[in-house]
């Protein structure tokens, strides 16, 4: 066999596999290019992860066998044509695998960013090298068709090889954003972190601060170093007076890295709970990571806490820097608190208090927990010089954050969209909200994830709590929601009112079938694509 034909076999196996593994690259992207998360996703979706490579192996084997048979009787000119045709057919096979094994109706579609393009280039080089080693060291060149069998591992290897390049690129952007912030010593920088509630508090704070300041708030859930870097580089303008950065974390040190970028003057902690226990492993590690923000606040800055009677209160007591505390109930050492709280399906009313003043407030946001979020934001605003009237006016302007207890009225079934994510505290709050509605109450949920070893027990408790608040339960995903169903039954929930479906589309179809005017439906959580059971 000529060297040219051998290399066409190598390119066919490498390029075809690269295209076939798009769903694996999608998983890698969904896990923010983090290897532990990628491998957890592979374990959860083992069949889906293995199938593209297995099918591509069978396809290449058949293709190479056909080529070998015809190649025996071909002249040199025809061999070149056959080799080129082989590459074309391998690419077509890879594209076919993309269509068949890609994540269907992805909630977060695969985006071919510059990082993905760089990773693809590195992956192609790596795949060609591995296929070449196989072709020149196995008994037959054709055996390089076995390369795709380990495609999930080759994807990880490509990501690992691309990591130094990405580190250099990200550090370049990171330093550019640092310089842009350093050139603005007048800019008030606020960091917000917490296990949950940080996005809601961020948008509430942005709305209230806009009563006095030109404020830039990181949009959506841009809370990673690269996400915040991008907003600084692309959106921060000379007119901005305040920059509010949400700071997310899945590993110890994540908040510290964000603080290295932002250097916040003030730090806001919204909550500490069992979110992301699958990566943190213990509450203590979550607590210490969240407190990295307070460690980064300078001595002339200020730290803000809610009085949760638990970990946030403990961290408030621990802090020796200037600090402020807010509480849902009157408390001796609270700087801001509420009284006369009334919560209804149309919103909430309460009186906002400080040691020297008070004002009546009204908001369309649902749930008592959102009053806590408002109080925390108001505490920051008072420190930054807003008046009580400005804060009350801002509270009245607050709009529900998309997919976070967002009320969608209807002449038929009223929908409460709380699909962004779910955690034990947030789920309890959502159940309290729907319990306040008249009519038949329906919940649609796949349960909670990323809660580590206690996940099954958390979901079982969720089922028990659910039994007290809803009349119909539609559970999305048989395997993952089994603990919820068990909890419902343990609490005496009618078995005939428990419906298990395979996907959110099936859940929506069932709701259209059984829903009646006057019903209210709570969509509690919507799992990302890498948790889908379909």
Q: What is the residue-mean pLDDT, rounded to a whole number?
A: 91
Instruction: List the total number of helices.
Output: 20
Distance between the terminal alpha carbons, to the nearest Å? 45 Å
Helix content percent band:
40-55%
Largest sheet: 9 strands, mixed
Strand arrangement across the biggest beta sheet: 2-3-1-4-5-6-7-8-9
Strand segment count: 15
> How much β-strand is present in the residues?
5-15%
- Principal-axis shape equals globular
Structural class: alpha/beta
Low-confidence stretches: none
Radius of gyration: 27 Å
Would you mind describing this structure in some detail?
The chain has 534 residues and is α/β, with parallel strands linked by helices. The chain has 20 helices and 15 strands. The strands form two sheets. Strands 2-3-1-4-5-6-7-8-9 form a nine-stranded mixed beta sheet, with helices on both faces. The two termini are 45 Å apart. The model has no long low-confidence stretch (mean pLDDT 91).
Helix-strand blueprint:
Elements: H1 3-20, H2 22-30, H3 35-44, H4 46-71, H5 76-101, H6 114-137, H7 151-182, E1 188-193, H8 198-209, E2 215-217, H9 225-235, E3 242-246, H10 254-262, E4 266-269, H11 277-280, H12 283-290, H13 292-296, E5 302-306, H14 311-318, E6 323-327, E7 336-344, E8 347-353, E9 358-363, H15 368-383, H16 388-397, E10 406-408, E11 414-418, H17 424-435, E12 441-445, H18 455-467, E13 472-476, H19 482-490, E14 498-501, H20 504-514, E15 520-524
Parallel strand pairs: 1-3, 1-4, 2-3, 4-5, 5-6, 6-7, 11-15, 12-13, 12-15, 13-14
Antiparallel strand pairs: 7-8, 8-9, 10-11
């Amino acid at each position: 066999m000529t060297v040219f034909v051998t290399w066409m076999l190598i390119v066919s196996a490498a390029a075809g596999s690269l295209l076939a593994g798009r769903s694996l690259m999608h998983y890698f992207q969904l896990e923010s290019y983090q290897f532990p998360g990628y491998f957890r996703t592979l374990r959860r979706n083992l069949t889906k992860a293995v199938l593209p490579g297995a099918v591509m192996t069978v396809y290449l084997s058949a293709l190479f066998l056909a080529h070998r048979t015809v190649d025996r009787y071909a002249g040199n000119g025809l061999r070149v044509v056959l080799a080129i045709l082989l590459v074309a057919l391998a690419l077509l096979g890879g594209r076919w695998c993309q269509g068949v094994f890609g994540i269907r109706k992805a909630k977060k579609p695969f985006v071919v960013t510059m990082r993905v393009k760089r990773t693809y280039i590195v992956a192609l080089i790596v795949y060609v090298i591995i296929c070449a080693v196989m072709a020149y060291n196995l008994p037959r060149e054709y055996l390089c068709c076995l390369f795709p069998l380990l495609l999930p591992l080759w994807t990880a290897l490509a990501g690992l090889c691309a990591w130094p390049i990405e580190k250099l690129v990200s550090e370049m952007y990171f330093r550019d954003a640092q310089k842009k912030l350093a050139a603005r010593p007048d800019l008030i920088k606020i960091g917000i972190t917490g296990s949950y509630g940080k996005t809601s508090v961020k948008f509430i704070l942005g709305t209230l601060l806009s009563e006095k300041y030109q404020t830039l708030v990181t949009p959506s859930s841009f809370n990673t170093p690269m996400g915040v870097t991008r907003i600084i580089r692309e959106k921060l303008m000379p007119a901005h007076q305040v920059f509010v950065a949400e700071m997310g974390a899945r590993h110890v040190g994540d908040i510290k890295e964000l603080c290295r970028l932002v250097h916040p003057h003030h730090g806001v902690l919204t909550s500490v709970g069992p979110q992301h226990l699958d990566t943190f492993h213990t509450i203590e590690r979550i607590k210490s990571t969240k407190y990295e923000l307070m460690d980064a606040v300078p001595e002339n800055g200020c730290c803000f806490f809610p009085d949760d009677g638990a970990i946030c209160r403990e961290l408030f007591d621990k802090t020796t820097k200037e600090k402020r505390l807010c509480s849902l109930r009157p408390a001796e050492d609270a700087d801001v608190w509420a009284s006369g709280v009334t919560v209804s399906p149309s919103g909430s009313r309460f009186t906002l208090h400080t040691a020297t003043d008070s004002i009546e407030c009204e908001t369309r946001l649902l749930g008592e927990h959102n009053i806590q979020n408002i109080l925390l934001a108001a505490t920051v605003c008072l420190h930054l010089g807003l008046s009580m009237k400005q804060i009350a006016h801002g509270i009245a302007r607050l709009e529900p954050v998309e997919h976070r207890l967002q009320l969608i009225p209807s002449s038929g079934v009223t929908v409460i969209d709380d699909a962004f994510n779910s955690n034990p505290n947030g789920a309890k709050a959502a159940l309290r909200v729907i319990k306040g509605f008249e009519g038949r109450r329906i919940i649609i949920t796949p349960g909670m994830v990323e809660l580590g070893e206690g996940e099954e027990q958390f979901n079982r408790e969720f089922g028990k709590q659910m039994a007290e608040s809803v009349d119909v339960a539609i559970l999305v995903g048989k395997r993952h929601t089994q603990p919820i169903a068990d909890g419902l039954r343990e609490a005496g929930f009618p078995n005939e009112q428990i419906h298990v479906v395979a996907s959110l589309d099936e859940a929506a179809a069932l709701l259209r079938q059984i829903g009646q005017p006057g019903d209210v439906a709570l969509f509690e959580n919507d799992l990302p694509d890498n948790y889908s059971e379909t």
